[in-house]
């Protein structure tokens, strides 16, 4: 949200009271406001990059509003911190304490758009959890973010090879977490837009392609409708 200048932050206090997610857009950087007001998502400087960032952030929030996130974290302090940050950008967060409970929940539900998991956990760590999630048919391509206090290149390589989309180091920085999450949802938004565009083309553009033997290998729905050709 764009805010006019106001003495003593009265507008910010009102927005916090109303629990309205807020982006501060200002010519000066006052980072202490991020912790002073619980509803503030980010603080953006007034310049061209600031405009671009706000557009990117709001577009992602509009797309991911009320999407479900599964948070796997055995520390109540960390999980509550992450939950509060994600709820600022209008996500719904479900918390479980370990990887085994996470797998049970994922097997029962297919409504999670993102999984965020700690690496250092009892019973089943984040690395093995990532591998098992990728074996689940519904979640084999779903985005996964790993949180860890271990800053080792070998471990990071394993996570990416096992299928993690991104890694965040502890302690959690709000700006970094929000940036990585909105990038993931913007990528999902782009994929959906491409699918919708291709579907529009398929239904409205008459097209077909053949191989070197002049055999039809692909046709659009519009081609089938006008010609009577059956894709099967």
Q: Summarize this, please?
A:
The chain has 232 residues and is of the alpha/beta class. The chain is built from 9 helices and 9 strands. A 5-stranded parallel sheet has the order 4-3-5-6-7, sandwiched between helices.
Could you please describe the fold and organization of this structure?
With 232 residues, this protein is an alpha/beta fold. Helices cover 47% and strands 19% of the residues. The chain contains nine helices and nine strands. It has a five-stranded parallel β-sheet with strand order 4-3-5-6-7, sandwiched between helices. Strands 1-2 form a two-stranded parallel ribbon. A two-stranded antiparallel ribbon has the order 8-9. Strand 8 and strand 9 form a beta hairpin. Helix 5 runs parallel beside helix 6. The model has no long low-confidence stretch (mean pLDDT 86).
């Amino acid at each position: 949200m764009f805010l006019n200048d106001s003495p003593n932050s009265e507008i910010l206090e009102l927005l916090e009271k109303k629990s309205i997610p807020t982006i501060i857009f200002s010519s000066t950087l006052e980072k202490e406001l991020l912790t002073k007001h619980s509803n503030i998502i980010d603080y953006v400087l007034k310049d061209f990059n600031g405009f671009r960032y706000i557009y990117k952030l709001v577009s992602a929030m509009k797309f991911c509003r009320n999407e479900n996130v599964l948070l796997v974290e055995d520390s109540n302090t960390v999980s509550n911190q992450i939950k509060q940050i994600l709820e600022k950008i209008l996500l719904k967060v479900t918390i479980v304490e370990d990887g085994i409970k996470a797998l049970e929940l994922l097997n029962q539900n297919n409504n999670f758009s993102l999984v965020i998991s700690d690496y250092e956990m009892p019973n089943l760590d984040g690395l093995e959890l990532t591998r098992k999630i990728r074996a689940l048919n519904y979640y084999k391509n779903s985005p996964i973010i790993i949180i860890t206090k271990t800053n080792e290149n070998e471990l990071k390589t394993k996570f990416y090879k096992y299928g993690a989309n991104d890694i965040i180091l502890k302690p959690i920085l709000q700006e970094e977490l929000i940036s990585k999450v909105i990038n993931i949802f913007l990528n999902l938004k782009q994929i959906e837009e491409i699918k919708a565009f291709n579907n529009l083309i398929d239904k409205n553009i008459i097209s077909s392609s053949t191989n070197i033997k002049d055999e039809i290998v692909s046709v659009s729905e519009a081609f089938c409708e006008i010609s009577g050709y059956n894709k099967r």
